[in-house]
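Worked example 3. Consider a protein that binds zinc ion.
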Amino acid sequence: MKSMPKIELHLHLEGAAPPAFIRGLAQEKHMDLSGLFNPDGSYRFTDFWDFLKVYEAATSTLQTPEDYRRLTLAVLEESAANGVVYSETFLSPDFCGGRDVGAWKEYLHAIRDAADQAERQMGITLRGIITCIRHFGPDKARETAVCAAETAGDWITGFGIAGDEKVLQPKDFLWAFDCAREAGLRITAHAGEWGGPESVRAALHDLNPERIGHGVRAIEDLALVDELAERGTVLEVCPGSNVALGIWPTFRAHPIGKLFDRGVKVTVSTDDPPFFHTTMAREYDMLSDAFDWDDSVFATLNRTALDAAFCDTDTRSKIA
Ligand code: ADE
Ligand code: ZN
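Given these inputs, the predicted complex is written out as structure tokens:
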């Protein structure tokens, strides 16, 4: 499965940082982050909320545009090695310069520089989705949206929301989403991972996103599943993430197959691969084993992802 060309729509840049990379940065900066790691070097967390804490602590080692340049190269190298040819990646002004527009532009310049290098050397294309973080609250999300609007263009193509779905409501972030939409950015929102169908409905009806990050708990309400299918809303499904965090016990128990069979536009991504001990190749292997999916199903999933990508038509035809 490694060599099959893959389109990934849902990857958090900081969440894709290999633990050894973060340990290296911590050492350079004389930070003691040993508590974040297991004895075998992997990230240590007990549940989703602990994961968010470890994620943010690991991210505290990323302090300069140069750190992000190196991170972007490391992440794209790993994605390319797993057959990813196009990666839509969540970028957060919260972590890149503290939502200051000037600093954000410097971080973005460094990330883009690395992405251009990776495209030349490894044939992988990156597009950025600026994401606000739900548990940081609506005021910070406004500042994030301003950063996004200031840098919207051919390379920054979308706006989204991640973080703890159990706090606040999508409608609390309307200003930020309206601002991003007015700047021409396309919309996705995390929902239906830790919240149930009501959370998916709120994101769908209040933010009107083209795509939903996860969305998989919609399976608990078949009327909602049918609504997603009718609207053509694309789900950025991350089965390995959901299994690693304990939402479902195995790939076989994961609802992606049922959602697909009922006509929902599903795609496959990794979310935060080293945290969840996964890669795009592993996701494909596990799905193939769990659901007996052959190459034609994966071709369909990739076609759906390509059609749903927030890039321009030139880029789409180049990667097709
Ligand atoms: N940020 C990084 N990974 C996330 C996830 N799985 N859910 C919500 N926010 C996230
Ligand atoms: Zn995510």
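Take a moment to read the result before moving on. Residues 12, 15, 162-163, 190, 193, 241, 271-272 surround adenine (ligand 1) (CB under 6 Å). Residues 6-11+63-315 form a domain with the TIM Barrel fold (CATH 3.20.20.140).
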